[in-house]
Amino acid sequence: MVQKAIQMNEGRTRVEMVAATIKQRIAGRSLTPGARLPSVRGLAATLKLSTSTVVDAYERLVAEGVILARPGSGFYVANQAAPFALAQSGPKLDRAVDPFWISRQSLEADETDLKPGCGWLPPSWLPGEGMRRGLRTLARGDGPALADYGSPLGLPQLRQLISRRMGERGIEASPEQIMLADSGTQAIDLLCRFLLEPGDTVLVDDPCYFNFHALLRAHRAKIVGVPYTPSGPDIELFAQVVAEERPRLYITNSAIHNPTGATLSPVTAHRLLKLADQFDLTIIEDDIFADFEYSPAPRLAAFDGLERVIHIGSFSKTLSASARCGFVVAKPEWIDGLTDLKIATSFGGGRLTAELVLNVLSDGSYRKHMETLRHRLSRAMSEVSARLKGLGITPWLEPQAGMFLWCQLPEGIDAADVARAALERRIVLAPGNAFSLSQSATNFMRFNVSQTLDPRVFEVLGDALAGRG
User: Fold this and answer.
1) Were both Cys, which of 67, 307, 312, 335 would link to 187 (CB 3.0–4.6 Å)?
2) Cβ-Cβ contacts under 8 Å for 71 (sequence gap 6 or more)
3) Do the beta carbons of residue 222 and residue 202 sit within 8 Å?
């Protein structure tokens, strides 16, 4: 691994390359405070470098306070180790395909910038009037909703409403089996804290939502990918990987898969749950796009009865990314432990946001909003798909619902190069390798159809594909 890292650091002296590699391993916690470094002769032999090069690199790190020299014993990582650096903990990807690159560019973009690569709807597509109406109602209310901590489990009335909504998708869960979270991301973070130890193996789809990679690296998990097909994970490879790796968790989207837009088939769901039972595997089913469906797809939590499956959801995609509210649905004994963990990490719940979400979901306008939104996305999906095909960009499949198109660029075109060219013209794209653990999606790209309707997007894509970017 060190040898590979050294080869990737072209343009530096050999001493600088060795020092940079050691720093990277310390930042990523593969070398922890107090750990003994390889001997000078051993590392020199591994890297096929001279011992003097390694000595000079070690002495430089000692001078910087990164490592300590103990005469007669060797070199050790200093106790004041560098803070954990997520960007350095994974493979050293091209910055244009780094998940943090996409997130930062999307979140920091100016209002005039275009964001076909982001994962949310334009503000004009969200129920702004309903949110304002809800805020006015709360402003007229009594003090507790505006000032007090919420209960750790979350607002009871909202949990009751979520319980009813789960029942519509075949998931039987009482309000006591539901815990509110600040977002779907926080829900997964709490579950990783609750279920994982550093070094545990976690399965993800390849491709999958890129923030799964970042979050799991933050928890020091070993991440293993399984190729994804139009009906779910490749079940034969899934069975092989589960048997070999014995993972603790599998994280997936059952309904509208991110980034592919695919839907899990009942047959694949059944086989997945049999394997989970056979190999003691827990499944986190991320269902934040559920309300975009025309009709409910199979849910692992419904088939499983919440024995091995934990179901999570969120309202950030359909109501507002500013009013963050998500939830976890799990068996009661796990909800109890998760509630303690939530107290430890964030104390009380976000009562004001929960009250606002409850108000908007309860006033009758949300159902009408979602009907309009689904039709609007369907029209956008058809229009964007047709225009991309005209440029030689081919959808991997035609999704039944949702906002994402997972597309293959013309042969020989690197999506990262297209993304760089587009960024120079204030357009943020999402290259495929940001979603792929195996880095096998070089010429794929995810498009958010709601953010891809501006003619400038297709003009810039056309120029980039023609080498005029």
Assistant:
1) 312
2) none
3) yes
Band of residue 6 on the pLDDT scale cut at 50, 70, 90: very low
Is the pTM for the entire model greater than 0.85? no
Strand-pair category, 249-252 with 282-286: parallel
Burial 152-179 (b: 16+ CB within 10 A, else e): bbbbeebbebbbebbeebebebebebbb
Taking the C-alpha atoms of residue 435 and residue 218, their distance in angstroms, rounded to an integer, is 17
Q: What is the pLDDT of residues 165-208, one digit of tens each?
A: 999 989 999 999 999 999 999 999 999 999 999 999 999 999 99
- pLDDT tens digits, residue range 54-108? 999 999 999 988 999 998 889 999 876 556 666 555 544 455 566 777 887 888 8
Residue given tokens 């839907």 in the structure block: 263
> Hey, what amino acid is at 193?
R
Structure tokens at 469: 């970017």
Q: Which residues contact 316 (CB under 8 A, 6 or more apart)?
A: 120, 183, 184, 288, 323, 324, 325, 326
Please, where are the H alpha helices in 290-390? 300-304, 332-346, 351-362, 365-390
Residue with tokens 């809800």: 134
